[in-house]
Amino acid sequence: QVQLVESGGGLVQAGGSLRLSCAVSGGTFSSYAMGWFRQAPGKERDFVAAIRRSGGTTYYTDSVKGRFTISRDNARNTVSLQMNSLKPEDTAVYYCAGRLNTYVGLNLMSPISYDYWGQGTQVTVSS
Description:
mainly beta, seven-stranded mixed β-sheet, 11 strands, globular
């Protein structure tokens, strides 16, 4: 059974940084494309960033480009999200997601493309 466990959330002032990590167990991590999504109260779950299996291709939503960096360590079965220059509008629960058996044309920016999800970690950015 595949499990995803996020860590690293917390409270930070605007302009600060946080690093989220997601540890994956129960599967062959290098076979999964991985993504980060976030959900603010009363809103839908939105795409933040994704990374393909090899780590050579990454995707970001426009609002985080230049501030957030997604990376993966296939030897340690982890995917990370480095978040810099945080803004109050980045406040949300952040979820890690995994997708097995990707194919050309699969939309990794859509939550319905993912098979597995973590429980989420809260990120709160104060102004």
